Amino acid sequence: MKKLLCWLMTLCLILPTIALGEEEEDLIIEEVVEEVLLELDLDSDDVYVDEDTGETFYLTEEEQQKLDALMDEEEEEEDDAGIDPDSLDLNPNLPENVINILLVGVDTRSKDPQEIIGRGDTQIIVSINKDTGAIKMTSILRDSLVPIPGYKNQTKINNAFQYGCNKVKKGTTKEKVRSGAALAMRTINKNFQMNIENYVAINFNGLASIIDSLGGIDIELTKGEAWYINKYLKEHPPAYDNKAKGERTPLEVVAGTQHLDGVQAVMYARTRSLKGENDFNRTDRQRHLLDLLLQKVLAEFDPLDMIDLVGTAADYSDTNMNLQFMVELAFSLLPTLSSAAGGESLFEQMRVPMDHSYSYTTANGSSVIKYNLTKHAQAIHEFVYGTYYPAK
Asked: Please, which residues bridge with residue 349 across strands?
């Protein structure tokens, strides 16, 4: 139990679903758990003790010190007003037992490794069923042609995050990121009749650092994938690469499972240029990588490692979720995590647009993907909820 709950603290920074946000209350994790237990009318003996190992949820002194230090850092940051749900075009007809969270991977081009301002090139809706613990993930292709609320011309959906950031002219970086996330959520809600009001935004630097903190990841590659990762990193070393030229051992150009460091794994998730492939294949790789990372954390990491990982990830990410929200979701996810077997996927997944339901066209001088938004809103609802809940 202790391992599962501490693992959940890092889930949103990897999946992401849950994070140590900018909470206003002065809370420590035990106090939040006690409060949630009372609200849920749960017996503490059933929740705190792992019957197989005898472990309890309470952290060791060293673990608690690290967690307190992280929370002290959060308290030092300036509070912000958060995001007004009334500005997000929420669909009020959706069932309340499913929490939808937007994961945004930001393609920042800043020299600042912690910058989270740019285009939202990865957009994944993470849907958590609080009744069953089921996790579902829906990727929305970045080149999807959509109307962005407040803007006249339709454009790629990945521009919404950047447009939102740009709306804040003289504010802090935090305010710009929060504005970008708000417009990205509103855009998805409006076009796909969703009710997203929580997000996690992370840049590519952060994802590579998280994977390195995990000790890298084993991924089954095709010969073409291994060749492409080597070629790209040799010719276009990214700014967030922490290895000097010649320090990294290239991957073997063979088909099979290989060990990738953080930058190699990020490049795997960004690959879309192999013969016959496109952005559809890239989103498949992104979800696969997230799945492998979750499985590794669940199987290998102890609470102290996870607190270290939270500290690493927090430097490269932003969220509007707080600790209270995190623990509440943690309990809903326990059935899924407790029953997960090694090597099995922890979630169901889909991708928008669906096969054979889109066309390519040009908008504002760029190639975009056009499809029926209402039809795909219905498909997302059926995947997440089992039925369609029109917004009007």
From this structure: 137
Dihedral angle, C-alpha 149, 153, 156, 161, nearest 10 °: -40
Per-residue pLDDT at 384 = 98
What is the C-alpha to C-alpha distance for residues 10 and 20, in angstroms, rounded to an integer? 8
Residue 158 CB partners (closer than 8 Å, separation 6+): 107, 119, 120, 121, 123, 142, 143
Residue among 243, 262, 146 nearest 202 (CA): 262
Q: What is the pLDDT of residue 205?
A: 74
Name 54's Cβ contacts closer than 8 Å, sequence gap at least 6. Answer: none
Q: How many domains does the chain have?
A: 2
Q: What confidence tens digit (pLDDT) does each residue in 120-175 have? A: 988 999 999 988 888 899 999 999 999 999 998 999 999 999 999 999 998 888 89
Q: For residue range 208-247, list pLDDT tens digits in order.
A: 888 888 899 999 999 999 999 998 888 888 877 878 777 8
Please report, for residues 71, 177, 231, the alpha-carbon distance to residue 162 in angstroms, rounded to integers and kept in the order given: 29, 9, 30
Query: How distant, in Å, are the alpha carbons of 88, 96, 113, 270, 350 from that of 131?
Result: 25, 10, 39, 34, 21
Which pLDDT tens digit goes with each residue over 296-306? 877 776 656 66
* Position 1 in a domain: no
Name the residue among 262, 270, 263, 264 with its Cα closest to residue 286. 270
Residue 140 sits at the vertex; the CA angle it makes with 134 and 144, to the nearest 5 degrees, is: 160
**Residue 272 shares a structural domain with residue 188:** no
For 129, the domain range is 85-206+347-384
Q: CB atoms < 10 A from the CB of 96, how many?
A: 8
Which stretches does DSSP call E strand in the chain? 98-107, 119-129, 135-140, 145-146, 155-156, 198-203, 217-221, 256-260, 317-319, 348-352, 358-363, 366-371
Structure tokens at 296: 């590794």
CB atoms within 10 A of CB 32: 20
Could you give the CA distance from residue 119 to residue 72 in angstroms, rounded to a whole number?
31
